[in-house]
Amino acid sequence: MAEQRYWEDIEVDAPVPPLMKNATPRQLVQWAGASGDYYEIHYHEKTALANMLPGIIVHGALKGAWLGQLLSDWVGEKGRVKKYSVSYRSMDVPGDSLTLTGKVTKKYVDGKDHVVEAEIWLQNGKGEKTTPGTAVVVFPSKK
Fold first, then answer.
1. The 3-state secondary structure of 6-44, one letter per residue
2. What's the pTM value of the predicted model, to 2 decimals?
């Protein structure tokens, strides 16, 4: 478990610590089973190619789940993810090095909550942001 971060230590424009992923075809089959998304473009190459895709592609919802993991890891056990949303802008393929990260855009106190807002995204090995989003998280305070 990573060291707990506190609201007082978070700065606007600071990066969200990155999370690295590299989907495998096996993982996509497992996600299909767990999520119920059995569209064959995610695990059957001939179907993906017949649909004019470069090959099998990573499920959008899996990329969204990974961004949720990024946020959960960032806020730690004493923080919480209030809300986040993502937009699927481009496809990602197994075997590509994917980086999930973000940037703090705002921080403030709302009642008892010490809130941080951030832009988040998944980028492919070319540095293209294929899955951008936003997040509102609550960090614990040192006070």
1. CHHHCCCCCEEEEEEECCCHHHHHHHHHHHCCCCHHHCC
2. 0.95
